[in-house]
């Protein structure tokens, strides 16, 4: 009986969340009607089909490569004796924090022909780097900025995977590669697909990287037409959302066939010795780090140093106190978003995965599809709803609550995959045993669910926090007036070519993210 | 004892607000160069600005205005186009009193939506007639000139064309960067269409596409690419090269080149200030717009942000190329609100964004 009441409560919560997360989608449909847009007519127009095809093609390529890269890195850092393992675990999530509008520009500045790396590479006999543009450029930069979507949840899962299966398989005579394919891959498959889905959805909604790489996808057409031809923008955004819904639904259908996962804490994870693979593995991780972090940071540092050290030029237009203010705002708002996102997402994950409830599964799909909606539409839609909801609206109008709510709508999707895996990983046998021993629901939640779910939930929070730190359109349009973040100030500076200021603040952003990654995601999971 | 303490502390609090003398703003740095002397007493009045002009460029001006007027200024910073959409979404409930746009397109969009108030004649008359709205709803307050940025190691100034129309010639094949979907380029192209007619404008753009012009998303990335030698020349506005070379020093390898004064390629693109119809503080909003057009602020724009002043008879800074002929500038910016959709259609169907 009590069980039923609890599930009922979760259902009400799930339905309410689904409605809240559906705001942007409903707004988009409404705008399509009121602006006289013709999404279907537009869909079968050559000027839409080509960018749509490019969007899908790019997203598929990036998803595949980011899935391989993220999984490989996760396995190396979580389960092997890779040298400097702890350092890599702190540094590898960092690419997530680069706002693409400056991250991609920094990539170009370092790696394109004539860029910072060209002289240095000449010494190694590389005389011409490929020009970073089009499909290749967009694929490269997005793969290296997006692999943490896979890396974080997979390494969280790998770290809690019971060693007993692998030891059994090894005892039965399987070779290590066989163990990886037959045992490990089956157990981490759901984490990989959840992360890969995020990469796909992020790629189709990204604007900064594709526009700087000059690869014409749907988001470019959406962005240029906001003022010039609003109906075209709204219709194309709806097509994007429909694409996301299709992909999310098929992922759910496909993941039903994935093997069931489970976790026993009794056996610590197996650690593999790399042996003769140690040096190649280390080189692989170093190369990943060099491309995804060192290359953009080199350009940022070049901008920052050249601009600050110049003797004749004007003083910086951004003072130290403004940087401190923006850093504090960035940290508080993103951490608050991470916490709220977990509080919203965990009940939905319970409902969908433990109770196999329809409302839970529906809420799950709504939450995750929202990730494909460009941030500016989320901002406009929430403004639309606050203006039309009278008293409640005016209460939220210019508040932190509205900003955090918008961030959560934008990024909670990042947490839901990892949270679902975390919920599914709790072995039912353990739950039943605790119940038999007389532990009530609350106690079981505290002593059974939380410890097993902790690594997954922290990885989920990490994804949300690092992504919120770089968010731009919502921060610009919905933050209370006078609440600058690092990203909004980087944008203001970079847009008007104050590259020194932008470089300095982007380095602060990267440092802050590395610090958070160290303190939030890793230090705690390691003590488990 | 406790009571006395409370009494004293509340007296102190009261005194700080009432008998401690009026509070004044404090300014320093560039803001103090714009407004010298003591600040006015702080009033309770607040003007809310939505600004597509970036904080780095205009914050000292707004601080100086606070000091000069005693009026509090609060700002939502953003992209001009997105702020225009936000204002459109907020309608008559918008908290914005003043909107500052980086180019005429977004203000024209709001003008067409009927969301802008008429400015008083005294304000409008501070600028030449081509730099304000025919419907009296907005006024230009600084300008950026369209130029051709070029790599100084690859090209000599004598090699460079005197008209944008020469860029469709064979010798420029694959050499020209063009920010075809950027806001200020789209505004420029709309004026181009009005000035030369749709046929000529469309033919020119098609000529650029056929001549393998390279598409870039914005001015800054073109100046950066020209400096690296990725492209030889690019159509941008004059502002960005000054910033890049201020930051990069001798490592920056690009310069601006001016087309002929009577060429459409030399158009002055203006930044615009406007007051929202929904404002409840018209007088203060007007004071702010007037302040932007005052002589110390116009001087600041040309000396510090290296833009062209539009009011108060201030001469452009000596490093800027002279702005001799303004006949081109007299073309009608008002067509932008309604002309942008056609511009977007022409640009998209030219295929330039795939180059």
List the topology elements.
The complex is a heterodimer of chains A (528) and B (355).
Chain A: H1 2-34, H2 39-43, H3 46-79, H4 85-91, H5 100-111, H6 116-122, H7 134-146, H8 148-160, H9 163-171, H10 176-205, H11 208-212, H12 218-228, H13 230-255, H14 278-309, H15 320-354, H16 358-369, H17 375-387, H18 390-396, H19 400-424, H20 428-436, H21 441-469, H22 473-478, H23 486-495, H24 499-526
Chain B: H1 2-17, H2 29-34, E1 46-51, H3 55-69, E2 72-77, H4 80-90, E3 98-101, H5 104-112, H6 121-124, E4 138-151, E5 176-178, H7 183-196, H8 198-210, E6 214-215, H9 219-228, E7 233-237, H10 239-248, E8 254-257, E9 268-275, H11 282-292, H12 295-304, H13 336-350
Parallel strand pairs in B: 1-2, 1-3, 5-6, 5-7
Antiparallel strand pairs in B: 3-9, 4-7, 4-8, 4-9
Helix pairs in contact in B: 3-11, 4-5, 5-13, 7-8, 7-13
Short description:
Chain A has 528 residues and is mainly α. Helices cover 78% and strands 0% of the residues of chain A. Chain A has 24 helices and no strands.
Written account of the structure:
The complex is a heterodimer of chains A (528) and B (355). By secondary structure, chain A is mainly alpha-helical. Chain A contains 24 helices and no strands. Chain A is globular, with a radius of gyration of 23 Å. The model of chain A has no long low-confidence stretch (mean pLDDT 87). Chain B is α/β, with parallel strands linked by helices and 355 residues long. Chain B contains 13 helices and nine strands. In chain B, strands 1, 2, 3, 4, 5, 6, 7, 8 and 9 form a nine-stranded mixed β-sheet that branches. In chain B, strand 1, helix 3 (55-69) and strand 2 form a beta-alpha-beta unit. Chain B starts with a helix and ends in a 5-residue tail after the last helix. At the A-B interface, helix 5, helix 12, helix 14, helix 17 and helix 22 of A face helix 3, strand 2, helix 4, helix 5 and helix 9 of B.
